[in-house]
Amino acid sequence: MTPYWEDEAEEDGAGTMVRPYTITRGRTAPERDDFTLITVLTTTQDPRDEQGAPVLPGKLQPEHRLILERCRRPSAVAEVSSGLGLPVSVTKILLADLVAQGLLLARAPLSVARVAGGVDMGLLATVRDGLRRL
What we know:
43% of the residues lie in helices and 7% in strands. A 3-stranded antiparallel sheet has the order 2-1-3. It is globular. The chain is built from 7 helices and 3 strands, in the order H-H-E-H-E-H-H-E-H-H. The two termini are 30 Å apart. It has 134 residues and is mostly helical.
């Protein structure tokens, strides 16, 4: 499977491919560093900017729109990155942009599990112990 950014890569005058860091406008780290591979992301119902005005999807990069489409159902950072075919580091920068704009909600996976009916810590400990034995 060819990564999304290779399929859609544009060529400049010299014939070189546009690299993923151009998607992030040269940024190499997200503004927030609390994303893990299993952080759960969901699209907000009524996205608004800092002034309370509705955010218009036309002002977003194509990658941002793909992320919003993917996160209509809760998705982990790793799933979003895989779906885009982009490195996790690039995906985290794009996700941080969307969270800062109020378009995405990010939740730690345990808080989501508690809301969904509870976490069986004994089961999680058993799985952890089994993985360590492998």
